[in-house]
Structure formats: structure tokens, C-alpha cells
Amino acid sequence: MAESNSKAATDLAELMETTMQNLQSKFQAMSDQIVSRMDEMGTRIDGLEKNVADIMTEAGMEEPQTSK
Q1: Phi and psi dihedrals of 51, rounded to 5?
Q2: 56: how many CB neighbours lie within 10 A of its CB?
Q3: Spatial contact of 33 and 24, defined as CB atoms under 8 Å apart
Q4: Model confidence over 17-53: pLDDT tens digits?
Q5: Does the reported pTM lie above 0.90?
Q6: How far lies 5's CA from each of 9, 10, 11, 19, 46, in Å?
Q7: How many other C-beta atoms can be found within 10 angstroms of the C-beta atom of residue 51?
Q8: Name one GO molecular function term (predicted).
Q9: What is the predicted pLDDT for the residue at 1?
Q10: Are 54 and 42 within 8 A, CB to CB?
Q11: How many CB atoms lie within 10 A of CB 53?
């Protein structure tokens, strides 16, 4: 009976370790995807800000900005 309990405990521990590794992998993949999308949004926002500044300059609403 003790061997059966020991085997069950070992099996449960292995199952839990595998499950935790799978969860960690999924969490890492989701985290990487979120960071990638945030970077993409930042790039798009930078482009949008530049386009708005260009339009305002063309409309004579703002002096052209010089890059530093």
C-alpha cells in the first residue's frame, strides 16, 4: 500500500510540474505577444503624431519643428 501511495504521489507531482510548465509557456507566449503589440502601437502612434504635425505645418497652423 505504501508503494501505491508513493507512486500516486510521484505521478501527481509529475503531473503538476508538467501543468505548471505548460502554464508558464503559455503565459510567456501571451506576455511576448502583448509586448509586441504594444511596440507596434507605439510605432503607429509615432507615425500618427508625425502625420498630424506635418498636416498642421502644411496648413500653416504650426511652425516646422527642427529635430534635435
Answers
A1: -65, -40
A2: 14
A3: no
A4: 999 999 999 999 999 999 999 999 999 999 999 999 9
A5: no
A6: 6, 9, 10, 21, 61
A7: 10
A8: transcription corepressor activity
A9: 64
A10: no
A11: 14
